[in-house]
Amino acid sequence: MTAPPEFPTIPLLTAPTAAGKTALSLQLAAQFPVEIVAADAFTVYRGLDLGTAKPTPAEKQVAPHHLLDVAEVSENFDVAQFRTLAEAAIADILSRGKVPLVVGGTGFYLSALTRGVPLTPPADRAAQAQLEAELQERGLDALLADIAARSPAEAARMERNPRRIIRALEVQRATGRFPSEFGYSAPSYRYRAFAFAPPLPDLEGKIRERTAAMLGAGWPAEAEWLAAQVSPERIPRPTVWQALGYAEALAVARGTLDLPEAEARIALLTRQYAKRQLTWIRQQLGAEVADRAEVARELEKLLVGWAG
């Protein structure tokens, strides 16, 4: 099989968390020469396996997977690094006559591929360290007020995320502009998005079942290991501790939260995240959300045509 001539349209499969993206991608990989490019903000980290629902060793035998386990939990892995590695993986897959299938639900990663990344200056760790100290001294609300005084819209975009606030102030104080005011680099490829979601009651059931299974499989021990590598008490909160459910799993490991309450809290947080993902898919990615069977058929058509 040969890939289409220059500038192929790359298929991108997305869905809210727990909907079954991995299962569908493996179903396709069993039929076509597909290699999977993961677009998930936390499966990039080595050691975060259970809590991120990372593909198992057996699942990775079905098809090559790219961008899993590419960073240590102590590293700050950013969207620019993701885009560089993802586009390199896509180029490599195409060069070997295979089909790259981007699979994931992290909105800002998918945006980086489909729209490009902001042309903001590189991170200045010294400036960030000063802002981290300022955050501890003045508090989150004071720094957010600094942003709101110049741009209420920018302050709203921060979503009270300390890392975003520090980055926004770092750039604004150095350049006079916030990160959102910079342009974007051009995407290297064209993408066609395929999005699906089960009915909400079914998705909520899947979330509850998966949460219970992950906790039962050893997620609390994984969270305890993570805490030994990177303290969750650091300010600003380390990137890895922004992963859903790890704080609750750690509380179970330390005996400060019982298992049923942890399951309930994590399931609630996951349902809320899934709803935000669906909003992003429709409004930002501009994709129609279909049912799984329809998406599978459309992807099969595309892959047959590619193999043509």
Automatic annotation (TrEMBL):
InterPro entries: Dimethylallyltransferase, IPT, P-loop_NTPase. It catalyses: adenosine(37) in tRNA + dimethylallyl diphosphate = N(6)-dimethylallyladenosine(37) in tRNA + diphosphate. The keyword Cytoplasm does not apply. It holds the Pfam family IPPT. Substrate binds at T17, A18, A19, G20, K21, T22. It is an enzyme of class 2 (transferase). Its cofactor is Mg(2+). SUPFAM superfamilies: P-loop containing nucleoside triphosphate hydrolases. It comes from the Bacteria. Transmembrane segments: none annotated. Keywords: ATP-binding, Magnesium, Nucleotide-binding, Transferase, tRNA processing. The record marks T106, R125 as: Interaction with substrate tRNA. ATP binds at A15, P16, T17, A18, A19, G20, K21, T22. Its EC number is 2.5.1.75. Monomer. Catalyzes the transfer of a dimethylallyl group onto the adenine at position 37 in tRNAs that read codons beginning with uridine, leading to the formation of N6-(dimethylallyl)adenosine (i(6)A). Belongs to the IPP transferase family. This is tRNA dimethylallyltransferase.
